[in-house]
Amino acid sequence: MQDSRTLLGKVRLLTVHHHVQSGHVTDPQASRVAPANASNQADNETYVSRVAPEPLAPPVRATVDEVSGVTIGIDVGTSRVRTLAVDGSGAVLASATSSHPPPSERAGGHREQDARGWWPAVERSLCELTAVLPRHDIGAVAVTTPSGIVVPVDRRGEPAGPALLAGDVRGAEYNRAAAHAGAARWRRLGLAVKADSAIGRIAWLAGNQPRLAGVRHPADLVTARLTGRDNDTSSAHAVACGYDPLGGEWPTEVLDALKVGRRLLPRVVAPGTRIGKVSRLAAALTGLPVGCPVVAGVTEGYAQQLASGAVTPGQFVGILGSRYRLRGVTEGLVPDPSGTVSSQPHPDGWWLPGGASNTGDAWLPEDSDRLDAAACARGPAGIVAYPLRGSGERFPFASPEAHGFTSAEPADEVELHRARVEGVAFVERLALDHLRRLGIPVTDPLLAAGDLHSPLWTQVRATVTGLGVRPSPHAEPAYGAALLALGAIVPGGLIEACSGAAGGTVVEPVPGEQDAMTESYHRFCTELHARGWIDDELFAVATR
């Protein structure tokens, strides 16, 4: 076997961007050409329907002699597919990107996407990636996709209609019924069924899709193409669709109330479980080796968490993008009565709690670098801002009436910019305070991930939270999926696989600004409490 460090020297941080919408792909290893829409039946491997759900099974790890030095993560986003390879130490070897048609939105709260565009983009991206990797050194592959997307499939496992995306509310009526039918279960799990919850979309499909033979997640469609058969799904995706991770079952009383047959839903296994092997056809189409293990993946948010290195109890990562997300690890399941924090099973038996805010960096102007520099020199703002765009908040508090505000007129654009940056950091601190009132410990430093790499933002977050903040160098979903695949084949599991992920220098709070920031944070919480958006208990925890 070629040493993976030698390979790293040849293709270090190679990135390939491929956007050709070709109808054919070439296998770089076998020099054979196959149509991108070739059926699994061409390889005598057919879709196998799963009928009865089963409890979670522990991950199945490969034996030592099966371990190879390279693993691949496949991130199927809503507008592009990104693949990334790592060696046995978690170092990035190469990556590739391929676009596909984006989602569409229609009146009435409909958000959908043509699921047939995902696999051709996966083929193209994998072909580019595997062309620079030794085929025999690829030891496992895992897939990550966004949470809450449901896809209707026919008897052959092919899409029977468009995928319904998170935020689609055509199942709102069913979700009201689901909230009532499963009230006891949801309380035990600390979950809240909302108007756009995925279980309602599943019920809508059951009542409105005549060709429906099953409901799957995007990752399931990709793994079915890779293995040539229907596979068990990851609990990470199933939990977003109503699966009970504590009981290890789909909520039968809810499904019965919604008239959703259990045969429509897949069996569920823990993330990191080996669910199949790459088929001969998929190998020819992608350049992956025949028989390469395919393991159950996680959602994009949790893949980013793994990529940051937050994999043991107490570790948390704040992921900053258009929406802020906080994710971490606890030893046991901690239900949240407010329903703003939900948990998924950890591959090693712990739990992965997390929440997603509607507040983030979506408001950033184009010249944010200039404003960052000026705001850094200016110091703490004299006003308080809550930079929520639109209306409605879901974490760290739930309020459909919430909206953005500033406490007073800013002196200039620099003060407004600084106040908004601080406002996002206040949301992060309030999220940490919410975890503390639930009894969830958070260790120092706080890990940081996201597309925004701003020294000002990192410094403000550290000063506001009072924690050191360590930015993660490769905190993207494809990297997390590759580490998950690595964890499925190395003896030390996920902890060993992610041991090198939490790199970066820890940024400490600025002592001279902490008192001013704490005063502003308390004013921020007072504004939220006065508007009735946060309850008395959270207000007391945050301001004591």
Automatic annotation (TrEMBL):
One of its GO terms (biological process) is D-xylose metabolic process. Residues 21-42, 93-112 are annotated as: Disordered. It comes from the Bacteria. The keyword Transferase applies. CDD domains: ASKHA_NBD_FGGY_SePSK_AtXK1-like. Keywords: Carbohydrate metabolism, Kinase, Transferase, Xylose metabolism. Residues 341-486 form the Carbohydrate kinase FGGY C-terminal domain. InterPro entries: ATPase_NBD, FGGY_C, FGGY_Carb_Kinase, FGGY_N. GO terms for molecular function: kinase activity. Belongs to the FGGY kinase family. This is Carbohydrate kinase.
